Amino acid sequence: MLKDFNLIATTVRGNERAMVNEMLFLLKDHLGDQEAAAVKTGVRGIIVARTSLDPYGVVEKFHSLLSDKPYEFRFALRIIPIERVVPTDLETIKKVALELALRIGVDETYRITVEKRYTTLHSMDIISAVAAEIQNKADMENPDRILLVEIMGAMTGISLVKPKEIISVMKEKMI
């Protein structure tokens, strides 16, 4: 698995290889990133990718591409930008998550979302450790920011995103 990925994509289980090819096609052919890499993770339904482009800019361009050419997204379910990749360790995750949380505006609400696979860490332990040190108001339904913790075995991707910075292909195709 790539240790320095900055995008996560989900797909239907069994379509990981097709999703790798789709991601490489989108990054290389549509966005011109010839250095892009994508691989299966060993977690069913999830691939990771590394782009030399800004991952938030990539997601923004994918939003436009999805509205103009939805047929280019055949296997992707969600595409998520990742800011930092760390070892799956509660203290390390807490430290990095709190560093990212410093960017939450004074009047902004937030939610912590933990998606975990192949770990013995408990979601509530992570949420409690991080939320205890964030002063902003939490909003589970409609937050301004999402502190996203994506655990995949020994590696964890962490991002602070606005809800629109996560692509949900099926939802957007329905619009």
Order of helices and strands: EHEEHEEHEHEEEH
Name the strands of the widest sheet in spatial order.
2-3-1-4-9
Poorly predicted sequence stretches spanning 5 or more consecutive residues: none
C-alpha Rg (nearest Å): 16 Å
Number of alpha- plus pi-helical segments: 5
By DSSP, the count of extended strands is 9
Cα(first) to Cα(last) distance is 34 Å
Structural class: alpha+beta
Q: Report mean pLDDT, rounded to a whole number.
A: 96
**What kind of sheet is the major sheet?**
5 strands, antiparallel
Shape: globular
What fraction strand? 25-35%
Please bin the fraction of helical residues: 25-40%
Short description:
The protein has 175 residues and is of the alpha+beta class. The termini are far apart. It is 32% helix and 26% strand.
How would you summarize the topology of this molecule?
Blueprint: E1 7-10, H1 16-30, E2 37-40, E3 46-50, H2 55-68, E4 78-81, E5 84-87, H3 90-101, E6 110-117, H4 123-131, E7 145-152, E8 155-161, E9 167-168, H5 169-174
Parallel strand pairs: 6-7
Antiparallel strand pairs: 1-3, 1-4, 2-3, 4-9, 5-8, 7-8
Helix pairs in contact: 3-4
Structural key phrases:
175 residues; alpha+beta; five-stranded antiparallel β-sheet; four-stranded mixed β-sheet
